[in-house]
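Async update (no meeting this week)

Hi team, since we skipped the sync, here's where things stand on the single-chain job. The sequence we agreed to prioritize is pasted below, unchanged from the tracker. I ran it this morning and attached the output directly underneath so nobody has to dig for it. Comments welcome in thread, and please keep replies under the output.
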Amino acid sequence: MARLWFVVLAAGLLFPGGCGGEDAAIAIQPAPASLAQLTGPWQPQPFALDPMLRSRIEQACRSDMERKPGSVAALVDVRGASVAVVRMVGPSAGMCDSLQISEIGNVIGAGGGWAGGDAEPLPAIDPTRLADAQYGSIGGGDLKVQGFSVVGRAGDAIAAVVIEPEGMPPILATLENGWFAGWWPAIVPPNQVADPALAQEAVVRAYDPAGALLDETSP
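Output:
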């Protein structure tokens, strides 16, 4: 079953002072975000989704990328600015770099993505490791923001993933079904698309439930 963990790390990477200095972490299952939050300002930590809206986002990505009916969203990252980042797996894998969530809850295609022809082979990874981290682009359609994302895989022992783009505060990634993702706004020249090749370098770090570093990588 998909899980979205918000982890308060003892190291204080995102939530300093939250544990009174003790060597511990707290996992919280947050309430689903409102449409006002999902279409409001970007934030460095992800929102939880209402199951019905998550289903609409999944269906929008499936339709936009022309995925087979059995394909499912392994991960949906939402953190404001009307953007949803979706990673599809199953009979035909794919990626929606940025779908747009409207103020009334409609979900439409906006940015790019990719679609695989057949089921995607996903070899097992070490429970403490990150793998297959890739940059993506944010923008397109009627979105009022552009930026970059990092999406990849995370082993089962990982409780939190933090993305640290150069020159920006840390970003707490969404962590679901063995995948992680997070995105951040960036200034892109007018009339140009955010090219993942131009993303500022980011370091991705994985932590266990106690806040100990397990792995780190750069896409």
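Quick observations from my side:
Residues 1-27 have pLDDT under 50 and may be disordered.
Residues 139 and 146 are 4 Å apart (CA to CA).
Reply here if anything looks off.
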